[in-house]
Design brief:
globular; Rossmann fold; single chain; 30 strands; alpha+beta; 633 residues; ten-stranded mixed beta sheet; Immunoglobulin-like; 3 domains; Jelly Rolls; eleven-stranded mixed beta sheet
């Protein structure tokens, strides 16, 4: 075929196959404000009425739509859904004044609720609406769900906050760079001033804290996060609270995946100064989001609900080989019933599992010369795993190092620094960060945290220090899943600043964000005796132990064996017919085989990739499910 006519043929075929059309509307809220909404419809009306997928954005709906053509086609022409993309109140073409998500939840203004219900009431909609998107697009999903819209049937929040106070004032200290830069670009100036004035938790924050309405939320959700995303703690909380304490449609219908990712790079391998193996790369949209929506919007039995509830990536140094840097899956909350490992800080700079002699160490912190931020859980700053060597040996940083590990230590869950300390000022900050110390001396960040001293007893109150008195400070260093491998050491850095990630504490008792003075402070950390400062790690010693693990095997299944890429299942002879389906963790069928006439064994070939595989066995006895972990094959 002539290349010219071939191109014309391909163009006509393509345009006739993908033929969505669009419309725009201003959806009127009950106060009369119109929200600019772009609607994309399937050209094939034989499937009408359609389910709908909603994205609400502060970032310009028209601009977003212009860069989403392939996504729009996948929604409209492939899956026969309507797609709605809406500017939030006061943003771009929408009317009104935005107030930083305060109109998107369950307050006097309920823009998410009213938009969902307007869509569901249209003649072209079958009454099923789902929401999708990351960051701000995910925050508005949580808030809309909190307003209880009857027709919101599913959501897929990616790297989003469920409790905004805990992000804006992590540990009670203002997350300065991320908040100031984002609010200055995407909201009115007066909103930043309101945030700064409300530095104590109060009812002002309730409208942005979904914990206040968790039992009334009835939306199945798939939560997607990265270990180095700044919204990680809040989204882990969202999954846990909804899975176990949400409404009837919510409990048991939550899924969670956490990878070695930073904000804005979900599903990608690059994490700061580290590039994880190829298995860290995930196609979140096609392997998770679309199957999730197909199940809830189109009744597709695609296996997504049979996959494990929680999928977590266990990180570790990428220049070593082992069971780390791999995925692990769980059906129940994975951070319960774990072992605890305690490392005690000492005056000689060690981390050891036995308490040290009574001692102390002091440092002077000058707010005019704070410790610079290097990586971590950030939005607008470089994020991820960074070598902390450039800030390790400062005079205002106390460092502690463990012995060389002789066996792997799987840090798995929350990390807490219990610090006994005093100060010669009424207020100050205490920071902590843990690192993986490589044999070559690199000190690669695992996780970090901060606590403002005046907020040590609660974020809704201020309790100033008595200079010179010793207090206990519990500093939440966040959640992680990371293996300290043999030959490496665990390191801890304690200081009083991490700037510009967090605002610098001026060490005064004046209002937060409004101090007229800055004072140099002397802070002292205590060791041993009744003031034994320590690092408390949740650990999971069982990860990576089994070569192949069967979680349950009942009735028709007598045994299974994994040998290389082959899965062999021994079947009871009493079964006349057995169908075996093998799914990967995303819910995709990767193998299928049937046995008739009382066969005693079935053999299937697994993909070469290591990981969790779900087996569904259908037989005369009913349907049974179990999982196998394939590693090292």
């Amino acid at each position: 075929m002539n290349s010219k006519w071939y191109c014309v043929f391909v163009f006509l075929l393509f345009t006739s196959t993908f033929a969505f059309f669009r419309d725009t509307v201003r959806i009127r809220m009950h106060d009369g404000v119109g929200l600019y909404t772009i609607l994309f419809f399937p050209n094939d009306t034989s499937y009408s009425p359609f389910p709908a997928l909603l994205i609400r954005t502060p970032y310009n709906a028209e601009s977003r739509a212009s860069r989403m053509t392939a996504f729009i086609r996948s929604v409209t022409d492939v899956r026969h859904w309507v797609l709605a993309i809406q500017d939030l109140r006061g943003r771009y073409r929408s009317e009104g004044y935005d107030s930083l998500f305060r109109e998107d939840g369950w307050g006097a203004l309920r823009d998410g609720y009213e938009t969902i219900e307007w869509i569901a009431a249209q003649s072209w909609c079958n009454g099923r609406v789902a929401m999708y998107g990351g960051s701000a697009h995910g925050i508005v999903q949580y808030l809309a769900a909190g307003a209880k819209p009857p027709h919101l049937v599913a959501a897929f929040p990616v790297c989003a906050s469920w409790n905004m106070y805990n992000f804006v004032y992590q540990g009670g200290e203002f997350r300065e760079h991320d908040v100031v830069s984002w609010v200055s670009s995407h909201s009115r100036p007066e909103m930043l001033e309101l945030i700064k004035r409300n530095y104590n938790y109060s009812s002002w924050w309730d409208i942005l804290n979904c914990n206040t309405v968790v039992d009334s939320i009835n939306v199945p959700m798939y939560h997607v996060q990265g270990w180095f995303d700044m919204f990680l703690p809040a989204q882990l909380e969202a999954y846990y609270m909804l899975q176990y304490f949400g409404g009837d449609s919510t409990r048991g219908n939550q899924k969670l995946i956490v990878g070695p990712w930073v904000h804005g790079r979900v599903g990608q391998r690059l994490c700061g100064q580290v590039i994880f193996p190829p298995n860290a790369a995930v196609d979140v949209l096609n392997d998770y989001a679309f199957p999730w929506f197909e199940y809830w919007l189109s009744d597709s039995e695609n296996g997504i609900m049979d996959t494990s509830n929680v999928r977590l990536y266990l990180m570790g140094p990428v220049d070593t080989v082992g069971y780390w840097n791999n995925w692990y899956c769980f059906d129940s909350w994975p951070f319960e019933d774990l072992d605890t490992m305690v490392f005690y800080l000492s005056g000689s700079g060690t981390l050891a599992t036995v308490p040290p002699a009574i001692d102390s160490a002091s440092y002077d912190f000058d707010p005019r010369n704070p410790v610079p931020t290097r990586g971590g859980h950030n939005l607008t700053l470089p994020a991820g795993i960074y070598d902390q060597s450039p800030v390790w040996n400062r005079a205002d940083v106390l460092t502690f190092v463990s012995e060389v590990a002789t066996r792997p230590i799987n840090i798995f869950g929350q990390v807490t620094l219990k610090l006994f300390a005093s100060s010669n000022r009424f207020d100050t900050d205490f920071t902590g960060k843990i690192v993986d110390i490589y044999p070559d001396g690199r000190k690669m960040l695992i996780t970090d945290g901060i606590l403002m001293a005046r907020h040590r007893l609660g974020f809704d109150r201020e309790d100033f220090l008595v200079p010179g008195e010793v207090y206990e400070f519990r500093i939440n260093l966040g959640y992680t899943a990371y293996t300290i491998v043999p030959g490496h050491r665990l390191g801890l850095a304690v200081s009083s600043s991490n700037y510009p990630k967090y605002a610098v504490n001026p060490n005064t008792n004046q209002p937060v964000n409004a101090s007229t003075d800055t004072l140099v402070v002397r802070n002292t950390v205590y060791f041993g005796g009744t003031h034994a400062s320590c690092l408390i790690l949740q650990i999971n010693p069982s990860l990576g132990v089994a070569e192949a693990h069967v979680e349950s095997a009942r009735d028709e299944i007598r045994s299974i064996v994994i040998a290389g890429d082959m899965l062999s299942i021994k079947i009871n002879r009493g079964e006349k017919m057995v169908d075996v389906f093998v799914y990967d963790i995303s819910g995709r069928i990767v193998a299928r085989k049937s046995a008739e006439g009382r066969a005693s064994r079935l053999t299937l070939k697994l993909p070469p990739q290591n990981g969790i595989y779900l087996i569904r066995v259908m037989s005369d006895s009913g349907v049974r499910r179990f999982k196998v972990l394939k590693v090292g094959g």
